[in-house]
Amino acid sequence: MELRNMTLYSIFVRNHGGTFAAVEKDIPRIRALGADAVWLLPIHPIGKAARKGALGSPYAIADYRAVNPEYGTMEDFRRLADTVHRSGMKLMIDVVYNHTSPDSWLAQHHPEWFYHKPDGSFGNRIGEWSDIIDLDYTHPGLWDYQIETLKGWAEIVDGFRCDVAPLVPLAFWLRARREVETVRPGCLWLAESVEPEFIRDNRNRGMVSHSDSELYQAFDLCYDYDIYGDFLSYVQGKTELTDYVRALERQESIYPADYAKLRFLENHDRPRMAHLFPDRRTRLNWLCWMFFQKGTALLYSGQEWENDHRPDLFDADPIPMEGTAPLEGLIRRLTALKKEPIFARGAYSLQACPNDVLLAVWKEEGRRLTGAFCLRGAPSLVSVELPDGRYENLLEPGKTLRVESGLLALDGNPAVLEG
């Protein structure tokens, strides 16, 4: 399947049932949503030294080659992987290679592979990350160890989401990809690429900090943090829709022709969609727009329930997931639509229209899909390149919308029309 047709579903095991076995039981439901891959936040043991909260951050890893005993055994993890694969999905795990916990296996057995402060003690170069210490990739032995670790996991899983990938040398990622390919052909590589400001600040400190354009040499997917600031500024009313569209269009000219971005409205580091958009109609427009964009869609565990609380990373904070998720039906339609070949190969154009309507059009070999998204949730009239008539809204089966004199009447709800 093409990356631009895919939907990822992200899970923090601690807050999604708490064990590998609990996640395994939920796999049929996740597959029924239309997800193509499950990405697990770090599954490894968590360090105790400098721990934040009672249970600690999953990104303060103590041992890259083991699983967190709170989640289960390695056998439990393998059973989960088997269940994911039997369902027809891929399984991805988090790779956190910039740093470890201060009491990690590597810190105890290979202290020379770490960054050291002038006084010789362990340290990190991002001050607010007080529960971790940085690795130093000037040591060839570290490269060998880390790549062998990846190859071991690649015997079980299908891909890796690489935490703060820009802070690890690009040459390392290129070599890792080549070697992992011998174990898992077609392995999927997702980079947590970062905001432009973060890149500049780190470079000014003399640190390695790669841009998205560099990372695409080694990775299949990058985050769209490069435009997250533009998105947030528009949502907060600080800028206009034209500014946000301009940022999206910029991606079309600065990345490879086949680039794929991870499109999301929330993740474990960012506010929930329901918090950003308290108005439900507005929220649904944004959700539909996320799926209609060029790229891979991301759902974060609990998003389908419209939870407005972002789960804590440092303590137990179970996600409420009782009964049928309110967005289940809509998400199923969106994931099914996303799999249409036009989203992988078609020509794509955007337009900022009056009344905060974003118009997006996909074209391929005589076929056209027109998406109209009322990003403030208000009814509007927009000009469209469609013959007059009535069109079924593919997002609301059975409901039609009218085009007259080239004007599409929108009731404030999202719409996708074919014609």
User: Main β-sheet: number of strands, strand sense, barrel status?
Assistant: 8 strands, parallel, barrel
If you compute it from the alpha carbons, what radius of gyration comes out, rounded to the nearest whole angstrom?
22 Å
Distance between the termini: 25 Å
Nearest-integer average pLDDT: 97
Shape: globular
| Category by helix and strand content | alpha/beta
Q: What is the count of helical runs?
A: 13
Strand content: 15-25%
Helix content: 25-40%
The strand count comes to 18
Widest beta sheet: strand line-up? 1-2-3-6-7-8-9-10
Could you list the spans in which at least 5 consecutive residues all have pLDDT below 50? none
Task: Describe the overall structure.
This protein has helices at 20-33, 74-86, 105-109, 140-154, 170-181, 196-204, 212-215, 228-235, 241-254, 273-276, 280-292, 328-338, 342-345; strands at residues 7-11, 37-40, 90-95, 99-100, 133-134, 159-162, 188-191, 221-223, 261-263, 296-300, 347-353, 357-364, 367-374, 380-383, 389-392, 400-404, 407-410, 415-418. The longest helix is centred in the middle third of the chain and has 15 residues, at 140-154. Helix 1 packs parallel to helix 2. Helix content is 30%, strand content 20%. The strands form four sheets. Strands 1-2-3-6-7-8-9-10 form an eight-stranded parallel beta barrel. The chain has a four-stranded antiparallel β-sheet with strand order 11-12-13-18. The chain is an alpha/beta fold and 419 residues long. It contains 13 helices and 18 strands. It is globular, with a radius of gyration of 22 Å. The mean pLDDT is 97. It starts with 6 loop residues before the first strand and ends with a strand.
